[in-house]
Amino acid sequence: MLPWALLFFAATPAAVLDEAGSRACASCHAEIYRKYSATGMARSSGKTGSGAYTESFEHGRFGDPASGAGYRVRADYLLEFARAASGVQGERKLEYFIGSGAAGRSYLHSVDGFLFQAPVSYYSQTAKWDVSPGYQRQRSIHLSRPIETACLLCHASRLQPVAGTQNRFGTPPFLEGGVSCERCHGPGKQHVLKGGAGSIVNPAKLDAARRDSVCAQCHLTGEARIARATSGVYRPGELLSGYSLSFVWEGRPSPDMKVTSHFEKLWQSRCKQASGDRLWCGSCHDPHAQPAPAQRVAYYGSRCAQCHDAAVCRRGEDCAGCHMPKNRVVDVEHTVYTDHAIPRAARSPDAALSGERRLVSFWKTPVEDRDLGMAYAVVAARESGFQDRALELLRKADDVPALSQLAQIYDRLGDEEKAMALCERILRAEPTQAAAAINLGTYRMQRGRAREAMRLWEDALTRNPALSAASVNLAVAQIRAGAAAAASATLVKALEYEPDHEMARRLLKDLN
Ligand code: HEC
Ligand code: HEC
Ligand code: HEC
Ligand code: HEC
Ligand code: HEC
Ligand code: HEC
Ligand code: HEC
Fold first, then answer.
1. Helices (H), 97-157
2. Which residue has a Cα nearest atom 5 of ligand 6?
3. 3-state SS record for 180-191
4. How does DSSP assign 317-382, residue by residue?
5. Closest Cα to atom 30 of ligand 6
6. Same-domain check for residues 263 and 124
7. Residue 332 lies in a domain
8. What is the DSSP letter of 395?
C-alpha cells in the first residue's frame, strides 16, 4: 500500500487586477517607499543575485552526514550535488531566494517552469550553508519537493501560478518580491488612479480584530492553521478568521518558540493581557521601517515607555534585551528569534504537560465542527491520539480539502472502500487533485483495473511531473503491460526531476 504521501494542495491565488504594485505608490509616498524598501519584509524574496544582500560562499561546500551527499554552492548560485553511494551527481541553478537574509535564506529551482524547494539553505547567523529545514533526515538528495503555496503567500506578492498544475508558475513566479504595500493596505489601483482619493485601507484605523488580521496573515500559525471552506482570498480590512483559523492548545501556552509565533507569544504576555486591544504589533513596530542597530535600544525603550514608567525598573536602558530575550526556535536550525511573551525573567523550561489537550481557536471565536476537525487532522498527522476526534468532527464535511483529510484518515485506518469512494468524489469536484489521483490509481491497480490506474497517474504527472510515486507506479504498470519502452521513458523523465530516486534508478537499470 502506497502511503498517502501528498497532502491536499490548495490552488494558488493569482495576482489580482485591482492591485497596482508597490512601485505605483512611490511617486506620492516617496519617503515611506524608500524606508520600507530597506526592510526585511520588502526584501523577503526575489531573484538570486538581485538586491543588496549577499551570502558568503566561503563555506559553500559541505557534506550532509544523514544522506552522505556532498553539496557545493558557487557564487553564481549554481548548486552542485553528488552522492557517492548512488553515483548521482549534477547541478541546479538556485533561481529565487525566500528570506531577506536577516536570519537566513531558502531557495527555489525550476524544471520546465515547475518550481521546487532546494535542499540547501543559507544560515546568516553562522554564515554557513547547510541542508534546508526539514531535510535533516533525508537519505538521498531530494530535489523535487514542490514549492508550497503558503510559502509564497507569506514571502512574495502577486503570484503567477499556472492553473491546473500543482507547482508550475509563470516567469517570474511572482510579480513582486517580498511583502508588497498592498498586502497590508489592500488593492490600491483605484486609489492610485484617483490620485489618492480612492479608498485604501489604513490598518491603524480598523477595529482591533481587523487591524490584527493584517499582520496575522503571515505572523500567526499556532499548532494548526487551516483554510476555511470559503472561496475567495483575504483582503486587508476584512477579518482573517473568515478565511483561515489558527488553533492553539487551550490553557497551555506552547513552551516552544517557532518562526511564526509572534502572535501566540505576545498574547501570552502580561503586557497584552493587562492592556487588551491597546497593545498590538504596531505598538512597538513601525511597519515601514526597522530601527538602525545603533538606535535599537532607544527605539524599543521608547515603545515600552508608552506604558511603563521609568521607575518601574531601573536595571538598564535595554528593556527588550532583558525582557524579550532571543531564543532558539524549534522549527529552524541555527536561528534565534525574539521572545514576544515579554517575561519578567529568563524562563525555566515549562513543566511537562500532561492530561487531555483541547484545541481552541486563537481568536476565541466559536468554530464549526469542520474547521476544528481540520485542525485535529493536522495534529493527527504528526502525533497519535487525535485521529478519532478529527474523524468524528469531519464526518459531515463535504468540501474538497475536508474530503482529502477524511480520505487520508480512512486510508491510515485501512478502510480502502471508504477512502476510494472519497478519492472519486474529490476528483469529480476537482480533477487537479494529484494526491487523490495517485491513491485512487493505486486502489484501482490492486483491483485489476490497470488501464484506469495508468490514466490517473499520467494525469497526476501533468499537474506535477516530479511526483515520483506516480512515475514509479506508472512504470511498474507499464512493465507489467509489456510496454518496456514506455516504462523506460517514464523513468528517465522521473530521474530528470529526482535523479537520486533509488527505486526509479533500480527499475531503469533492470530494464536496460
Ligand atoms: C497620486 C498620488 C498617490 C498615489 C500614487 C498613492 N497614494 Fe496613497 N495617498 C495619496 C494621498 C493624497 C493621500 C491622503 C489622502 C487623505 O488624507 O485623504 C493618501 C493616503 C494614503 C493612505 C492613508 C489612508 C488613510 O485613510 O489614512 C494610505 C494607507 C495610502 N495612501 C497607501 C497607498 C498605497 C499602498 C499606494 C500604492 C498602491 C498609494 N497610496 C498610492 C496619494 C497617493
Ligand atoms: C504577506 C505577509 C506578511 C504580512 C501581511 C506582514 N508580515 Fe511582517 N514579515 C513577513 C515576512 C515573510 C517577514 C520576514 C522577512 C524576512 O526577513 O525575510 C516579516 C518580518 C517582519 C518583521 C521583522 C523586520 C522585517 O521587516 O523583516 C517585523 C517587525 C514584522 N514583520 C512586522 C509586521 C507587522 C507589524 C505586520 C502588520 C502590520 C506585518 N509584519 C505583516 C510577512 C508579513
Ligand atoms: C505563515 C506565513 C509563513 C509561511 C507559510 C512561511 N514563512 Fe518563512 N517566515 C515567515 C515570517 C513571518 C518570517 C520572519 C520570522 C521572524 O523574523 O521572526 C519568516 C522567516 C523565514 C526565513 C528567514 C528569513 C530571514 O529573516 O532572513 C526563511 C528563509 C523562510 N521564512 C523561508 C520559508 C520557506 C522556504 C517557507 C515555505 C516552505 C516559508 N518560509 C513559509 C512567514 C512564513
Ligand atoms: C506590513 C504591513 C504594511 C506594509 C507592507 C505597508 N504598510 Fe503602510 N501602513 C501600515 C500600517 C500598520 C499603517 C498605520 C501606521 C500607524 O498609523 O500606526 C500604515 C500607514 C500607511 C500610510 C498612512 C500613514 C502614514 O504613515 O503616512 C501610508 C501613506 C502608507 N502606509 C503607505 C504605504 C506604502 C506606500 C507602502 C509600500 C511602500 C506601505 N505602506 C507598506 C502597514 C503597512
Ligand atoms: C500598551 C502598553 C504596554 C507596552 C507598550 C508594554 N507593556 Fe509591559 N506591561 C503592560 C501592562 C499593563 C503590564 C501589567 C502591569 C501590572 O500587572 O501591574 C505589563 C507588564 C510587564 C512586565 C511584567 C511581566 C510579568 O510577567 O509580571 C514586564 C517585564 C514588562 N511589562 C515589560 C515590558 C517591556 C520590556 C516593554 C517594551 C519592550 C513593554 N513591557 C511594553 C503594558 C505594556
Ligand atoms: C512590546 C513590544 C513589541 C511588540 C508589541 C511586538 N514586538 Fe516584535 N519585536 C520587538 C522587539 C524588541 C524585537 C527585537 C528587535 C531587534 O532585536 O532588533 C522584535 C522583533 C520582531 C521580529 C523580528 C524577528 C525576531 O523574532 O527577532 C518580528 C518578525 C516581529 N518582532 C514581529 C512582531 C509581530 C508580528 C508583532 C505582533 C503580533 C510584534 N512583533 C509585536 C518588540 C515587540
Ligand atoms: C538587566 C536586565 C534588565 C533590564 C535592562 C530591564 N529589566 Fe525590567 N526587570 C528585570 C528583572 C530581573 C526584573 C525582576 C524580575 C523579578 O524579580 O521577578 C524586572 C522587572 C521588571 C518589571 C516588573 C516590575 C514589577 O515590580 O512588577 C517591569 C514592568 C520591567 N522590568 C520593565 C522594564 C523596562 C520598561 C525596562 C527598560 C526601561 C526594563 N525593565 C529594563 C531585568 C531588566
1. 149-155
2. 281
3. CHHHHHCCCHHH
4. S-HHHHHS-EEE-SSSTT-EEE-TT--SSPPPPPPPP-S---EEETT-----HHHHHHHHHHHHTT
5. 262
6. no
7. yes
8. T
Q: Are 169 and 209 contained in the same domain?
A: no
pLDDT tens digits, one per residue of 229-268: 987 889 999 999 999 999 998 876 666 656 667 999 899 8
Give residue 330's domain range.
205-291+299-338
Residue nearest to atom 12 of ligand 3 (CA): 219
Let me know: does 357 contact 249? Beta carbons within 8 Å. Answer: yes
Say what the pLDDT of residue 465 is.
97
Q: Is residue 486 part of a domain?
A: yes
Ligand nearest to the CA of 217: 2
Distance 303 CA to ligand 1 centre (A): 26
Cell triple for residue 218?
503571515
CA 236/CA 181 separation, integer angstroms: 11
Closest by CA position to 118, among listed 54, 187, 48 = 48
Which of 165, 193, 221 is the last residue before a domain boundary? 193
Q: What pLDDT shows up at residue 13?
A: 74
Residue nearest to atom 41 of ligand 6 (CA): 281
* Percent over 90 (pLDDT), the chain: 80
Same domain (yes/no): 163, 211: no
**Domain containing residue 408: CATH number:** 1.25.40.10
CA of 42 to the centre of ligand 1 (A): 18
Nearest CA to ligand 7 atom 30: 313
Which ligand is nearest to the Cα of residue 268, counting in written order? 5
Mutate to test the pocket of ligand 2, among 184, 210, 219, 265 (most ligand atoms within 8 A of CB): 219
Span from the CA of 213 to the centroid of ligand 1 (angstroms): 21
